[in-house]
Amino acid sequence: MRNVTYGNWVPEKMLALYWVISVLTGVLCITGCFSGWQIPIVLVTVILCIIALASAVYMQLCHHIFSPWMLSGLGLLYGRK
Questions:
Q1: What is the pLDDT of residues 29-46, one digit of tens each?
Q2: Sign of CA dihedral 15, 26, 55, 73
Q3: Three-class SS state of 78
Q4: Mean pLDDT of the chain
Q5: Average pLDDT value for residue range 65-81
Q6: Residues 6+ apart with CB under 8 A from 53
Q7: SS3 of 38, please?
Q8: CB 56, CB 25: distance < 8 Å
C-alpha cells in the first residue's frame, strides 16, 4: 500500500505566493496611509491585506498539520503500533 502525502494539497510555490501577496498588500496599505490616499481606498487595501494574511496563515497551518511527518507522529498516517 502506498503512503499518501496529504501535505501535497498545499503546494510550496502557492504557499510562497500567499505570503508574497500578503506582504505586497501590506506595503500597499502603508504606502496608501502615508501618501494621502482617500479613506475608502485605504480601507479596501486594509481589508485585502487582512484577508491575504489570514489565508496565508491558514494555508501555512494546513500545510504543517497535514504534512507526512506530523501525521506519522500522531499515528494518523501509518497507524499506531
A1: 999 989 988 999 999 999
A2: positive
A3: coil
A4: 80
A5: 59
A6: 22, 25, 26
A7: coil
A8: no
